[in-house]
From TrEMBL:
It comes from the Bacteria. UreD, UreF and UreG form a complex that acts as a GTP-hydrolysis-dependent molecular chaperone, activating the urease apoprotein by helping to assemble the nickel containing metallocenter of UreC. The UreE protein probably delivers the nickel. It is found in: Cytoplasm. Keywords: Chaperone, Cytoplasm, Nickel insertion. Required for maturation of urease via the functional incorporation of the urease nickel metallocenter. It comes from Pseudanabaena yagii GIHE-NHR1. Belongs to the UreF family. Its main location: cytoplasm. This is Urease accessory protein UreF. Coiled coil: none annotated.
Length: 240
């Protein structure tokens, strides 16, 4: 038996999308905790429908499209494009909670990237000259997670389509995990939901791959309101 030549790419994709990746994704719920607490999400059908709507009409497809642009810019060593799309993404974050979560996860992944492969040190140094680093958080700046994910995907030789698909799947998995910890259904139900959403993940990933710059738009007011309310929720499991 001959190992698939793409096996190394698959292994690396599995690693950067693993829930064990120490970027802090488990700490955030993107408003899911508030939705569960307020009764909007109480059943697996509620959760499944919410995630479907977000994938087809919310901002996550645009985030995946930005990860794609970061991947492409990294391959071309286009630091100007990386900086542009990072600034664009920061400017479109509608709540402080979502913006800070994106910066924290992005900069954790950038730090981990160099520790995984010290051959990337010279590339990270040049990128850090143009992208904000952790010390810039107090200045209202940061490297967004989608940007970092695209950079790392390209540097690890994961192709663009798999990078986008991995980003979308990790988003779904994280929010399902958040919901499992917030409402009364178990891990098995959570896995059933992810399995049921496979076709939607594929469709949204394809939409991100096909999205033109002029088409980067969304209707994410529901998730934005949930996130804003979560910032002031009396009792919280997740960071805000």
């Amino acid at each position: 038996m001959i190992i698939n030549p793409d096996a190394l790419q698959i292994l690396r994709l599995l690693q950067i999308t693993s829930p064990a990746l120490p970027v802090g994704a488990y700490s955030y719920s993107e408003g899911i905790e508030y939705l569960c607490n307020s009764g909007v999400i109480q059943t697996e059908i509620d959760l499944c429908n919410w995630l479907k709507r977000e994938m087809h009409f919310g901002f996550i497809t645009n985030e995946a499209a930005i990860a794609l642009r970061a991947h492409q810019a990294m391959l071309k060593n286009d630091l100007v494009a990386l900086n542009y799309w990072n600034s664009w993404l920061s400017a479109t974050r509608e709540t402080e909670e979502v913006r800070l979560a994106s910066w924290q996860m992005g900069q954790s992944l950038m730090k981990l990237w160099v520790q995984l492969d010290d051959q990337q040190l010279w590339r990270s140094q040049s990128i850090n000259q143009i992208l904000p680093t952790a010390k810039d958080n107090s200045e209202g700046q940061g490297c967004n997670y989608a940007i970092a994910f695209g950079i790392v995907g390209a540097s690890l030789e994961i192709d663009a389509s798999n990078t986008v698909l991995g980003y979308m799947h990790s988003w779904v998995s994280n929010l399902v995990s958040a919901a499992v910890r917030s409402v009364p259904f178990g891990q098995t139900t959570g896995q059933q939901i992810i399995f049921r959403l496979n076709a939607d993940i594929l469709q949204s990933s394809q939409s991100a791959l096909d999205c033109l710059d002029s088409e980067l738009e969304w209707c994410g007011w529901g998730a934005s309101l949930a996130s804003a309310n979560h910032e002031t929720q009396y009792s919280r499991l997740f960071r805000s």
